[in-house]
Input
Amino acid sequence: MMNIFEALRVSHDTQRALAARLMASGPDGPERHKIFLDLKRELKVHETAEERCFYVPLIEHDATVSAARHAIHEHHQMDEMVEDLEGRPVNGPGWMNGARTLCEKVEHHLKEEETKFFQEAGKVLTEGQKMSLAKDYEAEFLTLRTSEAS
Ligand SMILES: [Fe+2]
Ligand SMILES: [Fe+2]
Output
């Protein structure tokens, strides 16, 4: 059984792999677009499940409220970057620069969560919560992932 930190890292690894594939993709529109859509969906599903099952409980604690607020703000910033990229052709001018900025933001966000916020959360969550939140997160992720699948 995984704890909440291990559960969150599963999607983090998926996001890193998709970002690397996007950066390595050729100017062939359909393939690049497909990888972008996969990354978009992974980000959206992970962000929402993570906010509901990790950051909401952290908002309850004085020691982690600012980390939670910061992370949710970054989720919003990434959403806006995705939205901007979505409206433009993937092989058009500047698209890859925008995609690179998004991927760098994703890398920064994941690193900050894993090296800073997970440690802070580790101090305020009980061992029982770390396990039960992992279950909640995985169930939420799957539900959202299914409704995004079409
Ligand atoms: Fe996040
Ligand atoms: Fe995350």
About this structure: The helical segments are 4-24, 29-59, 65-86, 95-124, 127-148.
